[in-house]
Amino acid sequence: MVAKIPLLIADYSKIHFIAKDIESMLKSKSKVILEVPPYCFLSRIEEPNAKLVFGCNLEYMTEEELVSVEQDIIHESGEIIRLHNATNPKHMTIRFFKKNQYRADIQN
């Protein structure tokens, strides 16, 4: 699972803490495979927006389980972002990528 989350944040020094909290949350999920550590990092800053990218490897599961786990991860990520007084701009959406699509996206 790889996702990009746009943020609207006034204090960029909080981004490090948001990323670490999201990484910790991912590590606590039972469906996340920890042999390859989950990650979360700042990928772009465009005043006043920033973009976080995070990802992890998930255990094999049914499509229904996968959707449920992804929704839970996104919901908890949103709560972490809100607790740090950042928001998701209303005109932007969270995007998921399959690994090959993501690699193509960052190479261009």
Describe the overall structure.
The two termini are 20 Å apart. The longest helix has 21 residues, at 63-83. The chain has helices at residues 15-28, 63-83, 99-107; strands at residues 2-8, 32-33, 39-46, 49-55, 57-58, 95-97. It has one domain: 2-Layer Sandwich (Alpha-Beta Plaits). It is of the alpha+beta class and 108 residues long. It is elongated, with a radius of gyration of 14 Å. Helix 1 packs antiparallel against helix 2. The strands form 2 sheets. The chain has a 4-stranded antiparallel sheet with strand order 3-4-1-6. A two-stranded antiparallel ribbon has the order 2-5.
Briefly, what is this?
The protein is α+β, with helices and mostly antiparallel strands and 108 residues long. The protein is built from 3 helices and 6 strands; from the N terminus they run βαββββαβα.
> What is the domain tally?
1
Query: Would you count the extended β strands for me?
Result: 6
CATH fold node name = Alpha-Beta Plaits
Q: What is the CATH domain class? A: Alpha Beta
The biggest beta sheet reads: 4 strands, antiparallel
Hey, roughly how much beta strand do the residues contain? 25-35%
- The percent of residues in helical segments reads 40-55%
Which architecture name does CATH use? 2-Layer Sandwich
Q: Which regions contain 5 or more consecutive residues with pLDDT less than 50? A: 99-108
Task: Provide the succession of SSEs.
Answer: EHEEEEHEH
Please identify the structural class as seen in this structure: alpha+beta
Give the strand order of the largest sheet, numbering strands 1, 2, ... along the chain.
3-4-1-6
Distance between the termini: 20 Å
Mean pLDDT: 81
Gross morphology: elongated
Count of individual helical segments: 3
